[in-house]
């Protein structure tokens, strides 16, 4: 296994792995074309840290993408890639009109009710291990490499959001790596989430 920084040449593999690992999740249901634009935008943003784990055949078997500055990250990538997101948005308006409203309402992945959440931290946007390779330490490796690189750049806090319900194994996975529950909150329309955080 080898850990490498990801770039646009890995886009197709990232999207395929996302679709395998996040079946039934909201972002996956927006379709392959939306996912491609999303990850393309993340990969080219200067404030993103994108790491992948590759096997001996150079296949991507795990990835983690992180915003070095959580605050305003989603809005920034939309601004930077406005035409592409606008085109994707038009497609979604026709296929799943309510989804657009949900995307807009959830652009900030934090609670507006939690007054002391300044958003002044790095944020893990997505982490996945290929379903056939889970439980082998790949997720743990991705977290520790991400933390190491962020720390080297002077960052001190890494946060993430994850589902509140039916998600104990994933919450435990993060807790084993030193993350603690910061608070819980609801995203639109009614999805309860945890925000976890670690002092790296
Ligand atoms: C969550 C995920 C990234 C974990 O990756 P992974 O490569 O399977 O995790 P690791 O093998 O590195 O496990 C690290 C530790 O967490 C534990 N763990 C991981 N997944 C677990 C599970 N489903 N149930 C129980 N424990 C689990 C491991 O036992 C291990 O513990 P140890 O350090 O005591 O040995 C992976 O399960 C995944 O891709 N899930 C689908 C996508 C997802 O939900 N991502 C998170 C969204 S917030």
The ordered H/E elements are EHHHEEHHHEHEHEE
Q: How does CATH name the architecture?
A: 3-Layer(aba) Sandwich
CATH-level-4 superfamily name: Gcn5-related N-acetyltransferase (GNAT)
Helical percentage: 40-55%
What portion of residues belong to β-strands? 25-35%
Describe this structure in words.
The chain has a single domain (2-199), classed as Gcn5-related N-acetyltransferase (GNAT) (Aminopeptidase), CATH 3.40.630.30. Strand 4, helix 7 (138-152) and strand 5 (157-163) form a beta-alpha-beta unit. The model has no long low-confidence stretch (mean pLDDT 92). The protein is 42% helix and 26% strand. The relative contact order is 0.15. It starts with a strand and ends with a strand. A seven-stranded mixed β-sheet has the order 1-2-3-4-5-7-6, sandwiched between helices. It contains eight helices and seven strands. It is globular and about 40 Å long. By secondary structure, the protein is α+β, with helices and mostly antiparallel strands. It binds coenzyme A (COA). Coenzyme A binds next to strand 4, helix 7 and helix 8.
Provide tags for this entry:
single chain; 200 residues; alpha+beta; seven-stranded mixed β-sheet; globular; binds coenzyme A
Give a brief description.
The protein has 8 helices and 7 strands.
How would you summarize the topology of this molecule?
Layout: E1 2-5, H1 11-21, H2 26-29, H3 32-44, E2 48-54, E3 60-67, H4 73-80, H5 82-95, H6 97-105, E4 122-129, H7 138-152, E5 157-163, H8 168-176, E6 180-187, E7 191-199
Helix pairs in contact: 1-3, 5-6
The structure holds coenzyme A (COA).
């Amino acid at each position: 296994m080898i850990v490498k920084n990801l770039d646009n040449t890995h886009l197709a593999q990232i999207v395929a792995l996302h679709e395998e690992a996040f079946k039934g999740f909201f972002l996956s249901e927006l379709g392959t074309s939306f996912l491609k634009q999303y990850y393309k935008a993340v990969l080219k943003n200067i404030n993103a840290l994108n790491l992948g784990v590759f096997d001996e055949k150079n296949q991507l078997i795990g990835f983690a993408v992180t915003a070095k500055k959580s605050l305003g990250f989603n809005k920034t990538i939309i601004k930077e890639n406005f035409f592409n997101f606008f085109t994707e948005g038009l497609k979604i308006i026709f296929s799943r009109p309510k989804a657009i409203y949900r995307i807009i309402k959830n652009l900030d992945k934090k609670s507006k009710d939690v007054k002391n959440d300044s958003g002044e931290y790095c944020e893990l946007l997505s982490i996945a291990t290929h379903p056939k390779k889970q439980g082998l330490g790949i997720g743990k490796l991705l977290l520790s490499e991400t933390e190491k690189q962020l720390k080297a750049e002077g960052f001190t806090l890494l946060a993430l959001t994850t589902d509140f319900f039916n998600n104990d194994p994933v919450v435990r996975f993060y807790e084993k790596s030193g993350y603690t529950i910061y608070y819980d909150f609801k995203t639109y329309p009614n999805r309860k989430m945890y925000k976890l955080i670690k002092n790296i």
